Amino acid sequence: MRAEILRIAICFACDDRYAPHLGVAVTSILRSSAPEETFAFYILDGGISDRNKKRILSLGEAGKAEFAFVAVDNSVFNGLPIPNPNWSAAIYYRLMASRLIPDEKKIIYLDCDLVVCRSLAPLWRFDLGKNAAAGVEDIAARTHIERLHNAGYFLSRYVNSGVLLLNQERWRTEKLPDRFFAFMNENRGILAYPDQDALNLLLRDDICPLGTEWNTQILGRTAKEDTPCPEAVRNAVIFHYLDRKPWLIGCLSPLASVYEEFWALSPWKDDCLQFQRQRNRRERRERRRRLFRIRLLGSEKWIVFFGKTFYHKSDS
Q1: What are the angstrom distances between the C-alpha of 27 and each of 32, 33, 134?
Q2: Under DSSP, is residue 311 helix (H, G, I), strand (E, B) or coil?
Q3: Which of 17, 105, 109, 292 could link 164 by a cystine bridge, Cβ 3.0 to 4.6 Å?
Q4: pTM beyond 0.85
Q5: Which residues on neighbouring strands pair with residue 164, listed in sequence order?
Q6: Residue from 212, 259, 258 nearest 232 by CA
Q7: Which residues have C-beta within 8 Å of that of residue 266, sequence separation ≥ 6?
Q8: What's the helix, strand, coil split of the chain in %, to 5?
Q9: What pLDDT shows up at residue 187?
Q10: Average pLDDT, the chain
Q11: What is the full DSSP assignment across 262-310?
Q12: pLDDT value of position 147
């Protein structure tokens, strides 16, 4: 007997700079899904080029996915704080999803810097009850709670806004977008992460906690010892890459390889191949530098061949 088709609605917010990474995330969702699952992808579009749109749309050719690019008027966000120069107004799009996507009762919101390794069906079926959202605790929750506590706000938990299950009906009924923008304008001086801080402060009693498997957060700038424990990695459904991204040379997380697997299957596979070649060249240069080192000027001098020191002198 054929299983009943399950339609899952997913929202991304993206500009053209992040469009390839959105494509990798969509590739991972489709590759990790069950046969009976289909997807409605809503892309809150902050200026994606026609070339990148065409590539994204090609992912729906197998019939498992439909795409809607929803234009966003960035003038709505004029005056709102953007504390990090690497961010854009797209950080606020998720707070407008209930208005921009009016026909969905609930939706899964996903950041573009992640990959999905197993079915999203259990998350889609999660019972929100009357809550406005569900999310996973942020990896730096204690730091964020302390920061906001010092500003006079008290929280018992702090969720990461990169993976959210949103009760769209509740957001529309209570006009939550208006409340968010008013709050951010009034508190711009204390919101280091404006959209995420506002989400946690305004919905402090209205966010259901989700297990870490739905947003296993990966730090790419730190040593490999900071990788999540083996059990967390085995249970992970979503790997969410923070700080140093896996498409940047110098990402230290061994779990960057999971991202590369889906990147190599995406319409941007040529970019992945070019990235791997650049990284390999850099690693070869680093190996040569470690094997052959000569310094004959300054207070300390040495000659090293094949990692063996043949000469070393210090004038101090």
Answers
A1: 9, 10, 24
A2: strand
A3: 109
A4: yes
A5: 109, 135
A6: 212
A7: 20, 23, 24, 27, 59, 272
A8: 40, 25, 35
A9: 87
A10: 90
A11: HHTTSTTHHHHHHHHHHHHHHHHHHHHHHHEEEE-SSSEEEEEETTEEE
A12: 95
Phi, psi of 143 (to 5 degrees): -65, -45
Domain boundaries, the chain: 6-267, 278-314
Amino acid letter, 224: K
Mean pLDDT of the 82-107 span: 90
Q: Which amino acid is at 98?
A: S
How far is Cα 259 from Cα 85, in angstroms, rounded to an integer?
Answer: 25
* Greatest pairwise CA separation for the chain in angstroms: 82
- Above pLDDT 70, what percent of the chain? 90
At 145-162, the pLDDT tens digits run: 999 999 999 999 999 999
Domain 6-267 has CATH 3.40.50.150: no
95-99 — which CB contacts under 8 Å span 24+ positions? Answer: 95/176, 95/177, 95/180, 95/181, 95/195, 95/198, 95/199, 96/44, 96/72, 96/177, 97/11, 97/42, 97/44, 97/166, 97/168, 97/171, 98/166, 98/168, 98/171, 98/172, 98/176, 98/177, 99/172, 99/177
| Contact call for residues 253 and 41 (beta carbons, < 8 A) | no
pLDDT for the residue numbered 301: 66
Confidence of residue 294 (pLDDT cuts 50, 70, 90): low
265: how many CB neighbours lie within 10 A of its CB?
Answer: 15
